[in-house]
Amino acid sequence: MSTVTIYHTTSLDGRIADGSGGFEWISEQYSLDAFMARCEQADAVLVGRGAYRSYVESEMWPLPGRLIVLSTTAQPENAEVRAGSAPELVASLADEGMENLLLAGGTTTNTAFARAGLVSGIVLDIQPSLLGEGPGVFEDGVSVELRLRVSEQMADIMHVEFDVVHA
Question: Among 71, 75, 82, 130, fewest CB within 10 Å belongs to which?
Answer without folding.
Answer: 75
